[in-house]
Amino acid sequence: MTSVMTSPHPVPGAEQASIDARAVSAWFGDRKVLDRVSLLMPGGSVTALIGPSGCGKSTFLRTLNRMHELIPGASLAGEVLLSGVDIYDPTRKLTDARKQIGMVFQKPNPFPAMSIYDNVIAGLKLTGLKAGRSERDDLVEQCLTKAGLWVEVRDRLRQPGGALSGGQQQRLCIARSLAVRPKVLLMDEPCSALDPTSTRRIEQTIAELGHEVTIIIVTHNMQQAARVSQQCAFFLAEQGTPGVIVEAGPTQQIFTAPNDQRTADYVNGRFG
Ligand SMILES: Nc1ncnc2c1ncn2[C@@H]1O[C@H](COP(=O)(O)OP(=O)(O)OP(=O)(O)O)[C@@H](O)[C@H]1O
């Protein structure tokens, strides 16, 4: 069953960008891996995508900023509306979607030889945004502060990004994503390569950012989904069938009173 998430009320940060996936199907070659997945991800809140390995969570995430189409042989159907505007509209530039919808990956991927400062503003050059020296300084401080890293690095901004710890590198990547002022931040298991302390620090950052940037996070960690998200969507691909959303709704409901037995079994660790 494909499910449409109803908006929680009142919608936190309703003025922030919502992202609305409508009947999204995805294929790799002939193989269909997502079947008509619909999900409304409300603005200014955190939505967690959960489900067993291989059910299509990362693929779904990549359809939300047009990264799926970069994979040779990959195709998709359906619509993804960013505050009501289809990001797949052929008259829109691919780079617009990427600028507005940033992504943080599983493994921190800063430019290792580039300074911390230059890492933060790296996206400006790529997206053609121009900024003067003092504007850049302000932006670097602002983004590192939002990513929860400023205090730790303010005295060594010229050191290479690769010299930071894994958790710091991931926060640097978050700061780099924020520098192009995205409306939405996609996070694909952003803590899976990190120790528990760094994980908690990133979760704190997500909680702080979630009010101003719409966040969609894929996680295998149920406690993490419960801690950071306001909405949850449970994906499943049963017996070789394409992935679907079994159930989506407020996180508390998904964890304490889900409607579907399969959701209850998954969140209680009975499979997956
Ligand atoms: N580049 C690719 N080429 C072909 N098939 C792929 C590719 N990437 C993913 N798939 C397939 O698509 C299906 C969904 O994969 P996806 O990575 O989206 O699942 P997932 O739920 O994110 O899994 P995990 O939790 O293990 O990361 C899987 O069957 C996978 O084998």
From TrEMBL:
Q: What keywords are assigned to this protein?
A: ATP-binding, Nucleotide-binding, Translocase, Transport
SMART domains, A to Z: AAA
Q: Which GO terms describe its molecular function?
A: ATP binding
Q: Name the Pfam families for this protein.
A: ABC_tran (PF00005)
Q: Which residues form the ABC transporter domain?
A: 19-267
> Gene3D superfamilies in the record, alphabetically?
P-loop containing nucleotide triphosphate hydrolases
**Matching InterPro entries:** AAA+_ATPase, ABC_transporter-like_ATP-bd, ABC_transporter-like_CS, P-loop_NTPase, PstB-like
Q: Extract the PROSITE patterns matched here.
A: ABC_TRANSPORTER_1, ABC_TRANSPORTER_2
Keyword Acyltransferase in annotation: no
Name of the protein? Phosphate ABC transporter ATP-binding protein, PhoT family
Q: Which source organism?
A: Actinokineospora diospyrosa
